[in-house]
UniProtKB/TrEMBL annotation:
Organism encoding this protein: Pyronema omphalodes (strain CBS 100304) (Pyronema confluens)
Localization terms from the record: Mitochondrion inner membrane
Name this protein carries in UniProt: Endonuclease
EC number: 3.1.30.-
Cofactor(s) this protein cannot do without: Mn(2+); Mg(2+)
Gene Ontology molecular-function annotations: metal ion binding; nucleic acid binding; RNA endonuclease activity; single-stranded DNA endodeoxyribonuclease activity
């Protein structure tokens, strides 16, 4: 059955998530409504401020400043921007730069919006970190009222699912420990996903270093619409905790960049969306392959804006995108 057919059957099969996303955004034959020039300018300014803030965090390992809103001369009888003298409401993306990852946290869902990592043959060969010495911890850099709590996961029925896997950060104990912050976690279905198909997918990413000297990965949650019997599309997801705090993603994405030795060499790019559900290990990984723009539309994030089109190659045309199913020792992985 083709992906297009899967897309027409909103709840059929594990591949529906990626196909339905593409269908939802593309089948109507129209793009998202165009923003006004003022909104466009504000978004552009915010994006520039966000890039600068992330660069500051990466360089100095300190919390990102909140970008101030653009202001212009008041030409009318009111001053809406006067509200900001009391504080800027946000949204605030808590960016944290750690030894083996950089994360951007979504205070509303109590999950990361994205987490980026970098793996190399050399980093994976080092075995200085041991997850037996690591513990799940709350991220105290997040204000308490927006913080994901350990108790929120207790008896929730979901694993504390790493976005950057601990196995990618064995090059030091600090790097390993950093992967156990809850700002690197999302609620994931355990048996059949986090401890199975998702683990095999993470292994696929590591195996890319057999061919490529540098692999960069961004991972995060999605909250995708599903078509209901009345024909309407709705977003629905569980929230765990007491009181309910942490959103349970419907799907997860990975955008993968496999780099060559030369700084100007082509970059093999792959994007995947997987449902947060039990997936048969026999399901081909290519069933979840999507284009980067689908991940962008679904997440509200932008990737690879600075990568020239003539340097992009399709990852799954450069290598075989397939899993090797191994019996991982995942009995304790992510358990509550």
């Amino acid at each position: 059955m083709s992906k297009a057919t899967f897309g027409l059957i909103a709840a059929a099969g594990a591949a529906t998530g990626a196909a339905a996303t593409a269908l939802f955004y593309n089948s109507r034959g129209q793009s998202a409504p165009a923003a006004s020039p003022a909104v466009t300018s504000a978004v552009a300014a915010g994006a520039a401020a966000g890039v600068a803030a992330a660069a500051t965090v990466a360089a100095n390992n300190r919390p990102a400043p909140t970008p101030a809103p653009q202001q212009r001369r008041n030409e009318g009888p009111v001053s809406p921007a006067g509200f900001f003298q009391y504080g800027f409401p946000g949204p605030v993306n808590d960016v944290a730069s750690r030894t083996g990852l950089v994360s951007g946290y979504d205070r509303r869902t109590r999950n990361p919006a994205w987490v980026v990592e970098h793996i190399t043959p050399e980093s994976l060969a080092m075995k200085e970190g041991d997850r037996k010495n690591s513990q799940f911890v709350e991220d105290e850099s997040i204000p308490e009222m927006f913080r994901a709590k350990l108790k929120d996961y207790f008896r929730s029925g979901y694993d504390r699912g790493h976005q950057v896997p601990a196995a990618d950060c064995k090059f030091s104990q600090q790097a390993m420990d950093d992967t156990f912050f809850l700002t690197n976690m999302c609620p994931q279905v355990g048996q059949g996903f986090n401890r199975d198909y998702w683990s095999h997918f993470e292994d696929f990413c590591r195996r890319l270093t057999h061919k490529y000297p540098s692999v960069r990965i961004v991972t995060g949650p999605l909250y995708l619409p599903k078509q209901h019997p009345d024909g309407k599309w709705r977003v629905s997801y569980e929230v765990i905790g007491d009181p309910p705090n942490i959103a349970v993603p419907t799907h997860f994405y990975k955008v993968i960049l496999a780099e060559g030795k030369d700084a100007n060499a082509p970059v093999a790019v792959g994007a995947f969306i997987l449902p947060n559900a039990v997936i048969n290990n026999k399901t081909p990984l290519t069933e979840f392959q999507v284009t980067v723009d689908i991940v962008e539309r679904a997440s509200g994030l932008e990737f690879l804006k600075l990568l020239p089109a003539n340097r992009k190659k399709e990852l799954c045309k450069e290598i075989e995108c397939s899993l090797i199913v191994r019996e991982f020792n995942n009995a304790k992985k992510g358990k509550n």
